[in-house]
Amino acid sequence: MQSWQTTYLGLRELPREISTFKLQSFFTYSRTERELINARRGNAHKLGLALHIGFLRLSGRLLNSVRIVPAMLWQHLGNEIGIATPELSSLRALYGRGRTLFDHQQLACEVLGFQWMTEHQRRALVRTLRDEVARCADRDQLLVFARLWLYRTKILILRDRDIRVLVTATLGQLEEETAKTIATAVPPELLVRWRDAMAALRPDGQTQQSWLWAAPAKHSTKQIGEVFERIELLYALNVHKHLDDLSGLIVRRYARRLASRPTSVGARIKEPARTVEVACFLRHCLFTATDQAILMVQRRVADLWRTVAAGVTGTVNWADLYKTLLAELVGLVAQGG
């Protein structure tokens, strides 16, 4: 299935607008499907079954909506199966008996190979979600992934609420497993130090959590010195000695989740989420600060190089000059700017 097709997965009713290309993609029928459609009595029942087959192929769900069916779709279906079509009609007007609607839904499932989810298949989906969480922990993306898995497995797509329950349970399990990994790798007293360090106030009145997350505005020696100060703090907390086994995706997810809240709110988060967020936040800040320091030093050296090169008129040893500039820069950083 291509990416443009996933847009319709899980729809409960027909889209208000659908292009001719997509009509031909979803509401064009194979020989077997045409034979099944033509076996129905009356044009209304033929149209109804054709509509259900196309919608199931489009969305992976059964069509229960009673809203008006677009005239463009009726015209397309009429051309496909060679019968006259109404200008305006809804499912409620199309079916006089609820039993006929149910029969058409069942026939659509049979011809396309779809079935209701069994308990065995539900457990298989949970296992698949657990594997996917290691690569993507975003709830909305996991929801799309679950719909796609159900469609490819020929299982009728569940309601969004039911899928979200499975996604939430999977993420909760990931959080518990991550918390156990952290508790095993990091001594309890160090975890307490990490939590206390987050809420500690700096001389300017901001918390260390906000200070660690803030991005440097430029690559001046003062800003470079501040980035090195962050790295020194994180090294003093021994962040670099732990949690090497955590994936970058998990570290980034929980770090951003904590950073999106005020410090006062984060302090009220219950365990084990609080420990997971704090540990991942500090680990992510160490990675980020290290990368920032390297990039800022490179840019500062380039600036100094251009400044000096512009003022040189004679022949110089550029390698020695570069080493001298770099030594001076390191000295400035060590002195705090």
User: What is the terminal-to-terminal distance?
Assistant: 56 Å
Shape: elongated
Strand tally is 2
The value of Rg in angstroms is: 31 Å
Describe this entry's structure for a reader:
This protein is mainly α and 337 residues long. It folds into 3 domains: 3-112, no CATH class; 119-185; 188-296, no CATH class. It contains 16 helices and 2 strands. It has helices spanning 20-26, 31-38, 43-59, 71-81, 91-94, 98-112, 119-133, 139-152, 160-185, 188-199, 208-213, 221-236, 248-259, 263-266, 273-311, 318-334, and strands at 68-69, 89-90. A two-stranded antiparallel sheet has the order 1-2. Helix 9 crosses helix 15 (273-311) and helix 13 (248-259) crosses helix 15 (273-311). The mean pLDDT is 85.
Q: What is the structure about, briefly put?
A:
This protein has 337 residues and is mainly α. It has helices at residues 20-26, 31-38, 43-59, 71-81, 91-94, 98-112, 119-133, 139-152, 160-185, 188-199, 208-213, 221-236, 248-259, 263-266, 273-311, 318-334, and strands at residues 68-69, 89-90.
Layout of helices and strands:
Blueprint: H1 20-26, H2 31-38, H3 43-59, E1 68-69, H4 71-81, E2 89-90, H5 91-94, H6 98-112, H7 119-133, H8 139-152, H9 160-185, H10 188-199, H11 208-213, H12 221-236, H13 248-259, H14 263-266, H15 273-311, H16 318-334
Antiparallel strand pairs: 1-2
Helix pairs in contact: 2-3, 3-4, 3-6, 7-8, 7-9, 8-9, 9-15, 10-15, 12-15, 12-16, 13-15, 15-16
